[in-house]
Records
---
Amino acid sequence: MIDFKTASLEEVLNHKTMYYDKIDFSIVKKSWDILSSHISIPFVIHIVGTNGKGSTGRFLSHYLNKKSFKTLHYSSPHILKFNERIWINGEDSSNKQLTFAHKKLQELLPLELLKMLTYFEYTTLLAIVLSDNLAYLVLEAGLGGEFDATNVVPNDLSLITTIDLDHQSFLGNTVEEIAKTKMRSVDTKMLIGYQIHDEVYETAKIVKQELKQEFDRNIVIQTVKILINMN
C-alpha cells in the first residue's frame, strides 16, 4: 500500500478504483467543502448528456480562449496521455501543473479522503484546483449528472447535449429516468440542445418544478434549435 500523502500522481492514480460499486457522492462533497475556502472558482459551465459532451466542451472552450478568456476544459477519458483530460488556455495541462494540483490536494485533504476518492473524482478535483482564478471552467460530466463528481461545484450554466439510454445500472431504465438524473445537476440555467427523444423536453419541465420546490431555485430553461425545425 502506498502513502497517499507523499506518493506521486502516477502512483496515486494507479491505486485508484475507477468507480464505486454504489455511488457515494459524500466523499467528493466532503473534499470540496475543504477545498472551497482555498480556491476561487470561475464561471462554471457544466456539460451533461449522453452524446456530444466532449466536442461541445472543446468547441466552446476554444471559442472562449480565442476571445482571450482564461479557460479550463475538463473532459474524459484521455486517448494518448492523461494530460489531455485537463486543457488550459489552448493546451493540454503540463506535468508541472498536474503535480502542483496533486500536491495541493495532498496538503489540504485528510488521508481518509485521499484514499477513498475514486479515479474520476480525484482527477475532477485536480481540474478544479487548476481552474483557480481563471475566467471559465468547462466541466464535462462523467457517467451521471446529479451525483457526478463534476457537480460538486455550483454551476452557472448547464448545457444538456443529446440524452439517450446509457449507464442504466446507475442512472435508470428509461430515457425519462436518465434525463431526470442528469438534469437534476442544474443550479441556475440550462440550455437544451437537439434531442432524439421528445421525453427529454417534457422531463426538463418536471425537473424545473421539482428543483424549484426543493431548493427555491429559479431555473431557466431554453431549447437550442440547431439545423432542424423542432416545432
---
Amino acid sequence: MHATLPYLQQTDFPAIKRDQLETLQVNLGYLCNQSCLHCHVNAGPTRKENMEKSTVEDIIRFLHDNNIKKLDLTGGAPELNLWFRKLVKAAYSMGIHIIDRCNLTVLHEAGQEDTADFLAQHKVEVVASLPCYLEENVDSQRGDGVFQSSIAAIKSLNILGYGLQGSGLELNLMYNPIGAHLPPAQCQLEQDYKRELKQRYGIVFNNLYTLTNMPIKRFGSTLISKGRFDEYMHLLKEAYQSANLHTVMCRSLISIDWQGYVYDCDFNQMLELPLTEQGKKVHLNEISDGYLNQRNIMIADHCYGCTAGQGSSCGGALHE
C-alpha cells in the first residue's frame, strides 16, 4: 500500500482553530468483518489493534468529567470490541447521545445476534454505511453478498422501531461515491434512497448522509496506483468552499485512537497526525479543562475533502 501523507503534507489549506468541544469520537479498533475499497481506516478481519479495558475506563472518566454531548463510536466494526457494551452502558447512564457507526453486516456475525436489541435498549443512534441502493454497486465496493446482508440488517432494525417516525430510534444511512468524484446533492439523493429502498425492499430510515472519499489510506493508495491522485486533489481544491470552514467537524470534535491518543479528527488519526506537546503524543488522560480552547487544528491537503462542494463530515453535508 502506498503511503499518502507525503502527498498531502505540503498544503495551502487555511489555518483553523477549535471551538467548544462537544463530541468525543472513539475508534475502538481496526478489526472489521469487511475490507472495503473506500475505507480510510484500512480496517479488516486480520487487524489486531483493539482498545483495551483500561483505555475504555479512561474514556468513561473523561465523559464523566467533561461536558460531552455526543459519544461517536467507530472502528473497524466497533461492536466487535469486547468493551463496546461497557462503554455504551456508561455513556447511556450519563445521558450522553451515543452514535454507533455500524457496517450492518456485523449484526449477522457470530456473537452479535442480540446487538441490535442492545442498541435499541440504550437508544443508540445507528449510522450505517450503504454506498448505493443498487446491489451491484454495493457489492463491487464492499464484497459479494454485502448488499443483501445489509438490507436484512436494516429490516431487523426496522422491526425494532429504528427509522420509524416517533420511535426515538434513529437510523441514518451513509453514502460515499464509488469512484473519484464528489457526492451528489445530499437532499436529492436522500429522496432517491427513500423511494427506491421503500419500493424495492420495504425498508425505511431517517436521514441520508453523504461523505466525500478522503485521499488517504486504501482509497488514496488506489488513486496513486492508478495515477489519479493529483487529478482527485485538483477536483477537491477546485470545489473548495470557504464557508465550510465554519462548520467542519474538527472544530467541535476530537478523535481518540484505540490506545487513547488524541487527534483533531478521524482522518488525522489515520494519517498519524496526533496532537503533540514537546514532540510527544497527547493522551486523553493529559487533557485538562480548557486545554483545547482555540488550539490550532492540524491541517494537510486532505482537509480539502471536508470543504469541497457541499462539504463533508461524519454528519453528512455541511450545507445544501
---
Amino acid sequence: MPRLRDPIHGFIELSELELKIVDSSPFQRLRNIKQLATTYLVYHGAEHTRFGHSIGVMHLASRAFCSAIHNYERDSGTQLFSTIDAKWYEQLLRLIALTHDLGHAPFSHGSEALFDDGLEHEDFTQKIICETEVAEIINRIGEEFCRDNRVGDDYRITPQLLWSIYGEKNPESNPQYLAHLSDFKLLKAFMDSELDCDKMDYLLRDSYYCGVNYGNYDLNRVIDSLTIYYNSRQNIKQLALQKGGVHAFEEFVIARYFMFIQVYFHKTRRYLDKLLVRCIEEVLEDHRYPSQVDEYLKLNDNIII
C-alpha cells in the first residue's frame, strides 16, 4: 500500500486507486493553490497548499471514524454497523475527505468574490468529481469494492453518492441516500460539524506553517474520545464526545478562536486579499472566473501571478 510522508501526521497510507486520484490533474492542481491565500506575505512560512491538507483530512477521517465506532461498540456492547457497512462507510468518507477541496479557486477563499452570482467553490467541487477523470477513478473504486467484497449494487460508490452525502442541499432525492439516511448524516458530521476532520487538520497545519502555536491542541485525545450517540427509537446517529475528551475539545475550540483572530482575520492579510481580488478581476476575462470546469481547472495561483 502506498504511503506519503506528511509533516503533520507522519506516514499516510492510501490504496492504489486513491493514489490515482492524487495523481490526477485536478488533484495535482491543488499543489498550486495556497491554503491561506496572501497570508504568506504576513507569516512567511504559510506557503502550504490544499494538496497536503486534502490528504491529511482523508487520513484523519479514517482515524476519527474507526475510533468513534470502536468506542461506541466497546461502551455499549452492541455492534453499530455490520462489518461490510463499516468498511463501505469508511471508504466513502475517505473519498469525500480526499476530494472535498478540489473546487477551490486560486488563492482559496481569498478570491471567491470573483465567482458568478450564486456560485461557490463547492459547485466546482461537484463538477470536478462528477465530470472529470476523477469521476472515472471513483467509479473504479466502487466497482472494485463490490467485487472484492462480493456485494451487489447496493454498495456501489459513485461521484453522485459522494456529493449527496457531503454537498447536496436536497440529498433525499437520491434513493441510495434515503436508504442510509441516518448513517449518511453521521458521515457528513465527520466533515462538516463543530468537531470535523477538516478543522482538525487545518488548525494544526496552518499553525505549523505560520510558525505560531495558536492552533495547537491535543489531536490524539480528541480522536480517542470520539464516539456515537445513537437514539434507536428515532434511528438518529450523531457524532459525540466521551466525557474524558471535553477538556481536549475546549482546547480545540480555543485554538480555532485564536487562529481566527491572530491569523485568518489578521488586518494586513485581509487587506492584501482585497487587493488580490482587484488585481485578479483585471486579468480575468469578463472579470469573473469561468463557469466551465475545464477552463476553471486551468487556473491556479501561479497562472494568476
---
Amino acid sequence: MSAILTAPAYSDFDQWQAKDYLREYYAEVMADERFALEFLVDSMRALPRLPLALDVGSGPCVHHLFPLVPKVARVHLADFVAGNREEIRLWLERSAEAHDWSAFAAETLRLETGKRPTAAQVQARERKTRARIDQVLPADIRATDPLGPSGRARYPLVTAHYCAEAISREKAAFRSNIRNIASLVAPGGTLILSACGAADHYRVGTRSFPSSRATPEDVLAAVQDEGFGALDLRVRQTPAHTAQGYSSVIFARCTRRP
C-alpha cells in the first residue's frame, strides 16, 4: 500500500516568532541569501542614484538593504508583523538583543569589490544603512494599498523578498499580492522580487507556514500583467533548504512602464 501524502498543518502568523526565524535562517550566510545578495548587488549596478526605496514584507531583516546603500538616499521598511518591526528597531538602536547582521554586510562588500572587507568597512556599511532608514512602517501586502493610499505609485524602487508567496498556498493570492506590491512602484520605477520556488510550505522550527508554489513562469506572468518589462529573471538551486520546504529560489528585477 502506498503512503498517503498530506499537506502539513499550517501555523497562524500570530504564532510567528521572529527570533526563531532569524536563528534558523540567518545565523550565517547560507546559499539562498548569498544568491539574493548577489542579485541585489548586480541589480543596483544597473540603477541610477535614487532618492527613496521601500523594502516591503521585510520580516525582521535588514540585510537586503546593504546592497542598496550606495545608490539610495533614504529607505522605508514595512512589515505586517509587529514582532518583525521590533527586531528592526532593536538593530537600529544597536541593542544587545539585536540580531548580528555583520556577516551579511561583509558578504555584500565582498560581492561589490571582489575583496574580503575589513571590520571597519563592514561597520561603515552597517552605519550607513542605519542612517538611510528613516521609517519602519506597518504594511499588509494582502491589501489593495499595502501602505494606505499615500503609498500608491510613490517609490522609484520597491524590493520584496520571500513575502508575496509566503502567506497562502493559493496562486491567486500570490498574483494578488504581486499586484498590491507593484502598485507601490512609481511609473518608470524598479521592482525587485525574491521568492521560494515551487514550495507549498516553509518551516521555521517545528512550525510550517504556507507558500504559493510559485514558479518562474508565475513570477514572469505576474509582473508582466502589472505592466512591467525589461525583466531580469534568475533561478538558483538551494538543495540545503529542502527539509525546510523549498529547494530553489527565484529572483526578478523589472521596470514599470511609464
